[in-house]
Amino acid sequence: KNSLPDPYMVSAIEGSSVFPESGEVYELEFPIHMAGEIDGTVEVKRKNGIVEPAKFAKIILVPLDGQRRELIEVDAAFDGFYVVSDVLPGEYLMTIAPQSTKKFKASAPPPKIIKIGYEGDALFGQNIQLTESRFAVPISVKQAQVSREALNIPANKPLYSLLVTKTGKSRLLVALQNLSQKNVDDDLFKGLRPINMKLSADNDRVRYMLEGNDVNKAYERCQAIMRSGMRCEMEILTRPLEQKYIKTAAR
Questions:
Q1: Does position 155 have pLDDT exceeding 80, yes or no?
Q2: Helix (H, G, I), strand (E, B) or coil at 192
């Protein structure tokens, strides 16, 4: 990267290696892209209407185009400001890490799709507001081998699943949840398809997929399930990724 004439130029691939032979000349071509940049602020809106910065909140960018397998994480600064530099062209899903929403006892908005073009787009003001709520939808990014062909999902797209609690920890809670589920409108589970897939710590929870695999509709459905008295977690299931930690943002 240090040999490129423009600091915003980045290699489209990580690199190549060869085993040269004596007397041979090798030519290697490296495609170059203009890197993008994203910045904004993360805030928390309390129940009393006061808005305050989400200090050191963690933002996650999940690649969606299948061209890279690297998860990007960045920490906001003390005043809630964040910046992500050297973002390769492509499509990403931006969300807040579950540990941050738990820390602020707030619900994150639905994950947002971010697109970076090949001209080095700079996306300013990508602000995120968390909302203090007892119906805060937990959002987690998990790595899992999913049969996307069987679920009719493009190979390079994540699966947005809902993990719904089937039973509770006590008989009273189980009875209340069963009663709640019986009284719930049929539309609440309409279009939800059970997925026969077990991950660690699933225990007695049931994983569902919403028809259409739409991120916003999955978020709204999970929130509706929580309002009915049951527990729900929204998952973003991707192919195995490698984490890349970026320095804390600073002005």
A1: no
A2: strand
